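Annex B. Sample input.
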Amino acid sequence: MATEAMLRARLTGAAPLVAVSFGDDDAAGHAARARAAGVDLAELRIDWHRDTAPAAVLRAIAPFRAAGLPTLATIRSKAEGGYWQGDEATRLRLFEAVLPGVDAVDVELSASGILPDVISAARAAGKPVIVSYHDFERTPDEAALRATVEAARYAGADVVKISTMVHRTADLKVLAGLLLRYEPMIVIGMGPVGAGTRVFFPLLGSRVTYSAIGGRPAPGQLPFEETVRLLSQFSPEYAGERG
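Annex B, continued. Sample output.
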């Protein structure tokens, strides 16, 4: 099965995906190691790239596709924890340029100036779109998060991603309730209190969990090997996918 078709099937299937994020340093080496480790999804963090000219980005992401890894292109805005330095028109052109070379894209709900055009371009290319929302300070209340999910779905998301900072058990309950209410979803609790969500929310249906192999781990993110070990222990579906 082609990586694009496999990713689309896994985003709506029973077994979650374990993603690892990569920039443009030693792309060929990282792609080879990710393939050998069995990474389910390579999140290509283009906002981490030193050179964001379209031709340079396409060269940097090509080894991941050549390695047979499903790929997700993310150009994360600074407002939601990313490093993108350019303007929105340039970011839109970059999304459009990389779409032929990746299997899916992730764009923030807050990127209202380019969101419709990114979704339209992805539709034309036949690629799924994750529409994401991040709050690095807190977990908003359930009503606010439901409104966010509904807005992302209305915008045309194939999958909605919600990632918030967790400070207490009540936050975990809010996120778990959101995950059980909507599908398909990616729901992540950040921070030490939220670390368990990276293993146990996939058991409740969260489609992707993000892990780290070196790089720049997000708050509460677990190493790739540990994430795979725990998911294989608790999820028969995931263990079956790993073989």
